[in-house]
Design a protein that fits this description.
Length: 366
């Protein structure tokens, strides 16, 4: 066992993140029954993206008719092309529209039972994103969608589920575990500020306009087809320097990694959360029950590399880049009370993703 493995295992043991003996069978059964009983149609904004396409595929497999709203032209929405070509499952319709414009979006929402709002700026590094993307896309898109949803209150969907981010918390002074009850947003980047503001608007509209809404604060979501994040970044670097992987910072940055399939199952449970919690707005951590370091991620990728075993090193310094939150330890306590459990640990999720990307290649940026 490497030093980073030992450190990650020690944190898991100390924090008591094992699922054994912690299930709530009554609530779990209620969540499953509510999920299976969802009628009508689902709308997914940002459905051409990495997480959105996985969500659309899962909904369609279960026979749910899905309307996708995305600014990406259909010709570029390659993740969804196999779904349109396939047979069986729920009907899929794709619409090129801008969620910031209520007039464009309003007709597409009619008859929706659930709206999954994933459309937002997805680049969390300020040196890679447009300087105002978090305001115009994340906040502006959320407000535009909510205006469209509430223009005719009687026609508003029963549930709205929005994806947010664990980065709203900023650095914890003592690297302590953050739960939904203890966590207080303290954004330190424009990306995190945009997510925090979008959550605030969703909360306000839920209370003022009688919506039932949930915000899922996502950890690092990984899986086949991903284009951004530490796993594809390190895989790309191996193309140039196959003898060595270098991690930004000191490699001790610790995060939860959740496979996209587990993320999708969590988002679908959130669609039932309002009826189970009795609150118009709820916050949930969509993350794993454990966490691993950036150095351990690099070790896993090196172990899966099919052309030898690269060395692993780091650039030094606590932060990987300006605004980076070195360590976030969050737990999905609220989701666990609804019976949700991830199928893969953080290490398993990273390993499965690395294996797929190393053999199939990292998709190019859209």
């Amino acid at each position: 066992m490497s030093a980073s493995q030992a450190r990650d295992a020690r944190w898991t043991e100390e924090r008591g993140t094992s699922d054994e003996g912690s299930a709530h069978p009554n609530r779990a059964e209620t969540a499953r029954e509510a999920l299976m009983g969802l009628p009508g149609r689902a709308v997914v904004t940002g459905g051409a993206g990495f997480i959105g396409a996985a969500l659309v595929a899962a909904l369609r497999r279960d026979g749910v008719p899905v309307t996708v709203i995305d600014r990406m032209p259909w010709a570029d929405a390659g993740r969804l092309h196999p779904l349109r070509a396939g047979t069986g499952g729920g009907r899929l319709s794709y619409h090129v529209a801008d969620v910031r414009d209520p007039d464009q979006v309003r007709p597409l929402l009619a008859g929706a039972d659930v709206v999954y709002h994933l459309s937002a700026n997805t680049e969390n590094r300020g040196d890679r994103a447009g300087r105002t993307a978090d305001f115009t896309d994340t906040v502006g898109g959320t407000v535009g969608l909510l205006e469209a949803l509430t223009a005719t209150p009687a026609a508003a969907p029963a549930r709205v589920v929005m994806t947010s981010s664990q980065l709203v918390y900023g650095p914890a002074p003592d690297d302590s575990v953050i739960t939904e009850e203890t966590g207080v947003p303290r954004p330190t980047t424009r990306f995190a500020a945009g997510k925090t503001a979008a959550e605030a608007f969703l909360r306000a509209y839920a209370h003022e306009c009688e919506l039932t809404a949930a915000a899922g604060r996502l950890s690092n979501i990984v899986g086949p087809g991903m284009r951004r994040g530490i796993v594809p970044d390190l895989v790309r670097r191996l193309t140039d320097t196959p003898e060595r992987i270098q991690v930004l910072g000191d490699g001790r940055q610790t995060r939860s990694y959740l496979h996209v399939d587990d993320c999708v199952s969590a988002l679908r449970v959130l669609a039932t959360a309002g009826s189970l919690t009795g609150s118009p707005f709820s916050v949930f951590h969509v993350c794993n029950s454990d966490a691993i370091s950036a150095l351990r991620v690099a070790e896993i990728i090196a172990d899966e590399f099919p052309h030898g075993t690269p060395g692993v090193g780091s650039t030094g310094g606590r932060q990987g880049w300006r605004g980076d939150v070195p360590t976030l330890r969050i737990r999905p306590d609220a989701l666990r009370t609804l019976g949700w459990r991830p199928r893969r640990t953080s290490e398993q999720a990273v390993r499965d993703t690395a294996r797929t990307l190393l053999r199939g290649g990292v998709p190019a940026f859209a």
